[in-house]
Amino acid sequence: MSMSAKTSSSHDEEDLGTAIAEINVTPLVDVMLVLLIIFMVTAPLLKAAVPVELPETRAKAMSEEQGQITITLRRDGAVFYEEDLLAPGELADRLAAVPKGADGKPPLVTLRADKALDYGHVMEVMGELNRAGFTSISLVTDVSGG
Asked: Is the pTM of this model over 0.70?
């Protein structure tokens, strides 16, 4: 009475011709997590597309709001709406075209100005923003270590 037991080698020979119906998703998840981390690190860097040397302060960093617009003033006096260079006098037209929010208020404006820029030029742009109805303006600075 010999009992034959199936050994693992005979089992492997039978399964050689069949395809495995399972997909290993672990490498896919690993790649997606790495891409997510890369995106999270680079997304804030893309917001500051126009290079300016911001003044330093000891103020706490504020969170970004959805739908805010960014106005940048370069050292040479050039004005940017988001990443678009504006011709002199074009800022008022661009601001007039900005849609109001769901609450009927205009969006928050973040103003980035080079620290070597004349204060009067910054005030001209802020006056233009005020005249267009933008009363919520955040001035962007670099946070100093002290």
From this structure: no
Tell me which of 3.40.50.620, 3.40.630.30, 3.30.420.270, 3.90.1150.10 is the CATH number of domain 56-143: 3.30.420.270
**Which stretches in the chain have pLDDT values below 70?**
1-17, 44-66, 143-146
DSSP states of 49-110: -S---PPEE-PPPPPPPTT-EEEEE-TTS-EEETTEEEPTT-HHHHHHTSPP-TTSSPPPEE
| Mean pLDDT across the chain | 78
Question: CB-hemisphere CA count at 13 Å for 17?
Answer: 1
